[in-house]
Amino acid sequence: MRAKHLQKEMHDQVDANLSLINHAISNYFMLPGSCLNTLRNDGPPGSSWDDDDFIPQAC
């Protein structure tokens, strides 16, 4: 039973991340290295960077 509850929580977090990303893409021009908000499993939202090693000065 606990495994099913954790699976639902994980799916909810993935859905929330996809919703945030879709909102960002539909409303803003996304440049390489742009900052995306992500929901971490262990706490509050954090920042995620593209994998091109570019980190802008401010998000």
Distance between the termini: 40 Å
Mean pLDDT score:
68
Structural class: alpha+beta
Low-confidence stretches: none
Please report the number of helical segments. Answer: 1
Q: How much of the sequence is in beta strands?
A: 5-15%
Find the count of extended strands (DSSP E, 2+ residues).
2
Largest sheet strand order: 1-2
H/E topology pattern: HEE
Please tell me how large the radius of gyration is: 14 Å
Number of domains as seen in the coordinates: 1
Shape: elongated
Q: Approximately how much helix is present in the residues?
A: 40-55%
Task: Characterize the biggest β-sheet.
Answer: 2 strands, antiparallel
Detailed description of the structure:
- This protein has one helix spanning about 1-25, and strands spanning about 35-40, 45-50.
- A hairpin with a 5-residue loop joins strand 1 and strand 2 (about 45-50).
- By secondary structure, it is an alpha+beta fold.
- The N and C termini lie far apart (about 40 Å).
- A two-stranded antiparallel sheet has the order 1-2.
- It has one helix and two strands; from the N terminus they run H-E-E.
- It has one domain (about 1-50).
- The radius of gyration is 14 Å and the shape is elongated.
- The model has no long low-confidence stretch (mean pLDDT about 70).
Features:
alpha+beta; two-stranded antiparallel ribbon; 59 residues; 1 helix
Quick recap:
This protein has 59 residues and is α+β, with helices and mostly antiparallel strands. The chain has one helix spanning 2-27; strands at 36-39, 45-48.
